[in-house]
Each structure stands twice: as C-alpha cells, then as structure tokens.
Design brief:
Layout (H helix, E strand, L loop, with lengths): L7 H12 L1 H11 L3 E5 L6 E3 L1 H5 L12 H5 L4 H16 L5 E8 L5 E12 L5 E10 L1 H52 L6 H28 L9 E4 H11 L1 H7 L2 E4 L5 E4 L1 H17 L8 E6 L8 E6 L32 H11 L3 E7 L3 E8 L5
Parallel strand pairs: 7-9
Antiparallel strand pairs: 1-2, 1-5, 3-4, 4-5, 6-8, 9-10, 10-12, 11-12
Helix pairs in contact: 1-2, 6-7, 8-10, 10-11
C-alpha cells in the first residue's frame, strides 16, 4: 500500500527543524529526558544531550561524550539486555529497539528509563549511526511497585483473615451441633415433667442454638469469598434465579410468596456459585423481611444500561422497607435492623452480596421506603456475555 501523502503541516515542521535549531531544542527539552546519537563506525564517540545527565543528578560538564560514561551507571543486567536488543535491531530493522532499563542516580536511588532508538543506515543498509531517546518512567514504576506491595499485603491479610474465620467457624460448628442435639434429646425425653417456664427456657435454648448454627454456616460461607480468585464462566442469571426459587419453595409456601423471574435476565461472565449466593440472599431477604399485612411479592428483572457490556439486574419486593438512615449500614458485617427473634439471620447476607459484587468488579445499590418495599440493584460493568 502506498504511503499516505505528507500533510502540509508535517512538511512545514520538517523544514522548520532544519532551518531553526531552536525548534528542535524545544521539542527535545520539553518532551524527552535525554537524547543520544552514537557513531557506530567509531563506537567510542557518542553525543549525549545535557538532559540525559541531569536526569541522573549529574553535571553534564563533568562527562565526556563516550558510551563508557553511561555504561558505568546502568544496571549491568539491563546493559546486557539492551546490547542484545541493539544487535538484533542492527541485524533486522523490523526488530524494535525499545526497552526499560535502570540507572543509578547520583543520590543512590534507581531511575527507570524507557530507552528507544533507531539505526541510521547507509545506502547498503549498514547501520552507521544510532539515534536514541530517553523517557523517565520512575514515578510510574514506583507507583507500580507500591501497588504490588499493597496487593501482596492485601492477599496475605485475606489469607490470614480467611484462615482465622474458617478456624473459628469450624471449631464452633461441632459444639453448636452437639448443643442442638442435646437440647433435642432433652425435649424428646420429657414426658410432661417440665413446668411451663422450663419448657419456655428449653425452647429459648433451642432457638439460641439454631441462631448459633446459622451464624456459623454464614461465617463459613463468607470465608469462601474472602480474597477468592473466582473461576469465570458464562452464567445465565435467569437459570440461577430459577434455581434459587425452586430452593426456596418451602419458604414460599409458608409465606404465600409470589416470586416472578423475568425471562430476559442476561447471561454474563462470572462465577456461578457466587452469583447464586448473591441472588439467593437477596430473594431470601425479601421473604424474611416481609410485611405481615400482605403476602410477599418479589420480582427479579433486568435493568437496562446504556453500556452494552454492563450487566444489571434488580430484586424488588413489597416488604417492610428500610429507613433512609439505615440504608448505608445494611451491608456491614453483622449489622441487623431487627432482633433475631423477629427475623432469623446473622447479619451476613448483604455482606456476602456486596462481596460477590466486588469480586466481579461490580456494585450493589439499595432504594427503599418504609412500608413500601425495597429494591436492590446489582451492576457488573464489562461482564456482558
């Protein structure tokens, strides 16, 4: 394909560079952190711009125009890589001379430089000069290193938290199950000898044991989501929601609930297990926090977005609603707006929901009004199938 004709402003700029050296000096000083021009026929001759030395905290007047000067302060393993890249570029013009190398600053710190160059060749194609440019990327590299340290620290903290929470939950599960079994044995062995007060105390103890078991189960579920690297696959949110509705069949029958699942719920890239946990907690909450004056009515529907890659859905109910003052704290761990004897649970359901959303790069929002119900909306940017 023929080269595109040169734009008149580009041609004008080329001529300006040739006519007025100050123009090139402005570009060099304003856009680059060093320029070098190497005589490959006399390898000990290399012009280096003053900016190249000031980048390393060195007075340019103290340096000769000799490649040995910079080869003393570059990291030796990076020098080896750069020279190998240089040889490849000289042998093949299509091999780009472009790499990141490290230099020692005069104060002992490390300077990260992106070093690019192009061989100037004679009529036979032999490289006779090398023109290069430096760009200082130290700030970006330091930020990258800090981010990597933070990620490692976060991963270690997640591992520690997951191990601790799992250990505590696992250790509590066995005694809570034993307590529940013993209380049931006591209740079954009673032949009417207990007083009404004693029977009430036994019922209270069984309710407490049930609450403890639910708390342990929820804690174990939460530990599985802490810092987890989920396995991504294509997930039909309609299929997972239908599976949740089938799972909650007995609770629906008990409460007279109606759950409507829109058949246009999207398919997204995600972790099927986590997304089921998310939908189950939102739908189950809608049944648990129902208004006693009317049967629960729950709708799971798609929320359309202007971004075709964003997947959003909502779970809407006609339940008790949430006061505006409490809507910012409902996602916090163990935060409950009702006593356990009013609504069963440990206060982890919405925490799990938020964790699943975060694991998928999304978020969850709530809109509610007391006495009129609640709508949870979950959005996953960039997860559309």
């Amino acid at each position: 394909m023929a080269d595109a004709p040169q734009h008149y402003l580009e041609a004008e700029l080329d001529a300006l560079f040739q006519k007025n050296p100050e123009t090139w000096r402005f570009v060099r000083q304003g856009s680059l952190d060093g320029v070098w021009y190497w005589d490959l026929e006399q390898p000990d001759k290399e012009w280096m711009s003053p900016e190249m030395w000031t980048l390393f905290g060195i007075d340019p007047a103290t340096k000769r125009h000799d490649p040995a000067e910079w080869q003393d302060i570059i990291f030796q393993e990076d020098l080896k890589f750069a020279l190998e890249n240089f040889e490849k570029h000289c042998a093949d013009p299509d091999h780009r001379y472009d790499q990141v190398v490290r230099y020692r600053h005069a104060d002992g710190s490390t300077v990260w430089v992106r070093c690019r160059g192009i061989a100037i060749r004679d009529e036979t194609g032999k490289p006779i000069r090398m023109l290069g440019a430096h760009n200082d990327i130290t700030a970006a590299k330091r930020a990258e290193e800090q981010a990597n340290v933070a990620l490692r620290e976060t991963a270690a903290a997640n591992d520690e938290l997951r191990s601790f929470a799992y250990s505590i939950s696992h250790d509590l599960k066995s005694p809570s199950n034993t307590m529940d079994m013993l209380l049931k044995e006591i209740a079954a062995a009673d032949e009417g000898g207990m007083s009404e007060d004693q029977r009430d105390l036994l019922d209270l103890a069984q309710g407490t044991a049930d609450q403890m078991r639910r708390l342990v189960d929820d804690m174990l579920a939460f530990t599985q989501l802490i810092g987890e690297e989920p396995v991504w696959e294509l997930v039909s949110l309609y299929d997972t929601a239908m599976g949740v509705r089938d799972l909650l069949g007995s609770l629906m029958a008990e409460t007279g609930a109606e759950i409507t699942i829109d058949d246009d719920l999207p398919i997204m890239s995600g972790n099927a297990t986590q997304l089921r946990v998310l939908q189950q907690n939102l739908i189950e909450n809608a049944l648990k926090y129902r208004d006693p004056s009317r049967p629960p009515n729950v709708t799971v529907s798609r929320v359309k977005s202007r971004d075709p890659t964003t997947v959003s859905f909502s779970v809407q109910d006609n339940g008790l609603g949430i006061a505006a003052a409490h809507q910012t704290r409902i996602f916090e761990m163990f935060k409950r707006l009702h006593r356990s004897d009013e609504v069963a649970g440990a206060g982890l359901g919405l925490t799990l929901c938020r964790r699943v959303a975060l694991n998928h790069g999304g978020d969850i929002q709530v809109a509610s009004e007391l006495g009129k119900g609640t709508t949870f909306t979950v959005s996953f940017p960039g997860r559309g199938a």
